[in-house]
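fyi for ur records
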Amino acid sequence: MRKPKSFKDFILGILFVAVLGCVAYFIADLLKTEVVPGDIAVQSGDTEITALQRVTAEQRKDGSFLDCERFDIQTDSADFPVLHMDKGIVLEATQDPWGDMYYTVYRSDYSELYYRSIFFSYPEESGTYYIVIDTAWGSKDHHFTTQHGFTLIID
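which gave:
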C-alpha cells in the first residue's frame, strides 16, 4: 500500500472507503426480501383453490411478537373456499415453509377426525370436511405462523 502524499489525500481515501461502504450497505438492504406468509394452493382434478389464510403470530429477532386469533372452526369455516374431490388432492405451498406443516381435519359436525398430523390423508368416507393447515414462513430471525383452511366435499 502506498503512503499518502498529504493529509488531504489520507482524508479523501477514508471518505472514499466510507462512501463505498455506505453504497454497499444500501445495495444489500435493497436486495433483502421482506418476509411474507406464503399461500397454499389445493388442487383436485381440474379445479384449484387457494386456502383461506389467517396470520396467527409474527415474531422478529428483536423480540417483538404479535399474537393473533386462530380459526374458530364453527364460525370461520363458512368463509373457507370449497373444493369437490376428484380422484385425489395436491397441496402446494407458494414458497418453502419454515418447519413442518400440520394438518387438522374436522367432520361436518366440527368434531376432529385427526389433529395436527404432519401427514395429510384425505378422509375415505363421503361427506363434508374442514381442513386446517398450520405452518410457519420465514426464518428464526423473522417469521409468521399461519393457518390455512378449506372445505373438502367428497361425493
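Strands lie at 40-44, 47-50, 52-60, 65-67, 82-84, 90-93, 102-107, 112-117, 127-138, 142-154. thats all i got for now
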